[in-house]
Design goal:
The structure holds 2 protein chains of 2 kinds. By secondary structure, chain A is mostly helical. Chain A contains 6 helices and 2 strands; from the N terminus they run ααββαααα. In chain A, helix 4 packs antiparallel against helix 5, helix 4 runs parallel beside helix 6 and helix 5 runs antiparallel to helix 6. Chain B is mainly alpha-helical. Classes of the chains: A mainly alpha, B mainly alpha. At the A-B interface, helix 1 and helix 6 of A face helix 1, helix 2, helix 7 and helix 8 of B.
């Protein structure tokens, strides 16, 4: 009986205590929302910046090799999000424009556009995973 | 060690109880209950709009917003789909080059049958929409298919809906494969997607009759009863899949092709939700 009571208590507490501790993602999202790109924040004793990975990649030196690498990464991520069915509307347009900018030798523009496409794909993949677990919560329950 | 074991066991219990709760509400083929979904949707609407009788939901937003309804009733005095109906009737009755006609492809000569569509085709294991059946009839008889979204396909579909006005929708889900298609459509309806992170339900369930810029989204219940529609925004008549494409695009998603399997499953789900309501297509909408 004592054991059952303890299981019930820990089960009840575990859900709330897990949500109370701020995850890295929550800390990042909060600081990003408050301070935008280029800021720093502390989490679990270490310092991090608020840049998205895509902003880091797009801030590398603007040259052909970096532009090609970023476009290749964006294309791979786009393929991944397409397979989930959660690609965003303008994603392919950004990729196409990135390729055109690369062909025109506009490397920074190409990197910025590929980074934008990559970010949209990454968000789409995250959205798909979240939806898979949570879509049912939107369905009205039978009373 | 004993405490750790007990703690892990308790956490498993917590995790399992959450997933069990989700399973209860019909997220899987084993647990989905279309009839329970339909009743739950009606209950939701009764709760949101207690003064609106269920059979009024065939009129979309005009069932719940008096100002919109007054404008719509004025429009309906000279229905903007009248010429499309005439064109649809003529197309429907025009024989193919081989002497057959659309009437030969449908039960009851295609008259008064809208309430059975979309339907599950067990031989092909897929949902067949009315527009799909019309175009398949044409191609099987050596004719070119119509375009999918507007023009002749919508006109013929409008005529067939008109001959079915007043008939109650009786969408059938005959087996588990059909139920899987229904579940796929249900999942699509309630899933957030696109850059705006919007589901169909965000606008048409929780968001119905609440302003989205200058528009009032229609209620989820009864959405399929009145298609095809002449939309003021379009300026002509269009199919429900034309609307799907527009909504999907407006959520800033990479939208699908009309009559894709996903959209057909969505229509299957949505029309099942309209079971018991009557066909009132074609309609006019903002």
């Amino acid at each position: 009986m004592k054991k059952i009571a303890m299981i019930a208590a820990v089960a009840a507490l575990s859900a709330s205590s897990l949500t109370m501790a701020q995850s890295f993602q929550e800390a990042f999202d909060m600081n990003r929302a408050m301070y935008g790109a280029g800021a720093t924040f502390e989490w679990n004793g270490a310092t991090y910046n608020t840049n998205y990975i895509e902003e880091e990649l797009a801030s590398k030196p603007a040259n052909q090799a970096n532009a090609e690498a970023l476009i290749a990464a964006a294309e791979a991520k786009y393929k991944e999000v397409q397979e989930t069915g959660f690609a965003w509307r303008d994603n392919s347009k950004y990729l196409k424009e990135a390729q055109e900018a690369l062909a025109a030798g506009e490397f920074q523009k190409a990197m910025d556009l590929a980074a934008r496409s990559h970010l949209q794909s990454r968000r789409g993949v995250e959205q798909a995973a979240y939806a898979e677990q949570n879509w049912i919560l939107a369905v009205p329950p039978l009373n | 060690m004993k405490i750790i074991k007990t703690t892990l066991l308790a956490m498993s219990v917590a995790a399992l109880s959450q997933s069990a709760m989700a399973a209860k509400t019909g997220a899987t083929l084993d647990t989905v209950d279309p009839e329970a979904d339909r009743i739950a949707l009606q209950d939701y609407m009764k709760n949101r709009f207690p003064d609106t009788p269920i059979d009024e939901y065939i009129n979309g937003i005009y069932a719940v917003d008096a100002a919109s309804r007054a404008q719509w009733e004025e429009i309906e005095e000279f229905p903007p789909y009248e010429l499309d109906l005439e064109a649809g009737e003529e197309l429907f009755n025009t024989p193919f080059a081989n002497g057959k006609s659309l009437a030969d492809c449908f039960e009851n000569g295609g008259i008064g049958i809208r309430q059975h569509y979309p339907k599950w085709d067990d031989a092909r294991k897929t949902v067949v929409t009315l527009e799909m059946a019309i175009n398949e009839c044409r191609t099987e008889n050596g004719e070119k298919p119509y375009g999918w979204k507007k023009g002749p396909i919508a006109q013929v579909s409008a005529y067939m809906a008109y001959t079915s006005r007043g008939n109650e929708f009786v969408i059938d889900i005959p087996n588990d494969e059909a139920k899987a298609a229904y579940l796929d459509g249900k999942k699509f309806y309630y899933t957030k997607r696109g850059q705006l992170n919007l589901s169909c339900a965000d606008c048409h369930l929780t968001g119905t009759n609440r302003l989205v810029r200058a528009d009032l989204p229609s209620p989820a219940l009864g959405q399929a009863t009145h298609f095809p529609v002449v939309r003021s925004k379009w300026g002509d008549i269009g199919t429900i899949h034309r609307r799907y494409e527009g909504c999907h695009r407006d959520s800033r998603s990479e939208y699908l092709k009309v009559q894709s399997e996903t959209y057909r499953n969505l229509e299957y789900f949505q029309t099942y939700m309209s079971n018991g309501l009557v066909v009132n297509g074609p309609g006019s909408r903002k």
